[in-house]
UniProtKB/TrEMBL annotation:
Signal peptide range in chain numbering: none
Keywords associated with the record: ATP-binding, Nucleotide-binding
SUPFAM superfamilies found in the cross-reference section: Glutathione synthetase ATP-binding domain-like (SSF56059)
Gene Ontology BP annotations: SOS response
Record protein name field: ATP-grasp domain-containing protein
Gene3D superfamilies named in the record: ATP-grasp fold, B domain
UniProt organism field: Hyphomonas adhaerens MHS-3
Amino acid sequence: MIGTWVALRKAGLLGINERNLRLVNDLNPRRLMRLVNDKTETKRLAIEANIPTPELYGLIRNPLDMRNLDKLLDKPDGCVIKPANGSQGNGIQVILGPMRGGWRRSNGQRALFEDLKFHVNNVLSGMYSLSGQPDVAMIEYRVKFDEVFDPISFGGVPDIRIIVLRGIPFVAMVRLPTAESDGKANLHKGGVGVGLDLVNGRTLHGMQNGKTTEIHPDTANPLSNLSVPHWDAMLLMAAKAYEVTGLGYLGADIVLDKEKGPLLLELNARPGLAIQIANRLGIRPLVNATLTANTDGLDAEGRVALAKKLFREYAPGLATA
């Protein structure tokens, strides 16, 4: 047991307890957590900071608002229903568009109005909220994901997770939906995580269910050497998220729309550590360097430039020139 701990320590692996003590507890004041726990607040802040985000069609806050549901759902290109205070993808329903008196879900099944009304009522009851308290249902734009991920994705929308420390983006991965994850880009549901070269957004290594992999389980295509478009814009969006929330440690989840480009989907005040497996990189040395880096006078662009410099220095086996 001690030998394993020493080996992991030597490899630079950051553990969950150290993350909680050094990063979450020290850098994320509890009074600011609601800014990312509540997705309506996150969206408001993003809009104010000119950070692109999926358009919000409307909110269902109580049973009285349910009378507006059919109008909010009446979108030819579909929409997304999600709980404002949900987590891990729970409670999200993706509607592709109208279908013979109802709507087509992302899994191909038809949903009648009563089915969606029942789901929204469950959201309002707090079934999917972090605290179990009554929640708000958001109806928003359905992302049309960029075809760049088609060879390594299955049945859903991939997203890019960028973890930001003191306003410096320092490690990233792309999360890919699979058949096992039911088309959701959630690692705990069986999605695939692929590490990214922070310098240029090139895909590196993959992982699924805590184990390394080099191919997508459904398409069998290799995961490495795919370049993520608009990479610098994504890094800049993640860096700006620090400025609008005040949280020193956060995860920015960004999706790539084929028409609108990068869109900030949500923020997370407790991003997990599986990103180390996806990158095959123990991040403690990079965390230590980022915590002590001099950011005086640096704006978001300056912190992105610093992030690339630090990644080249502390992840030399992954970074490219």
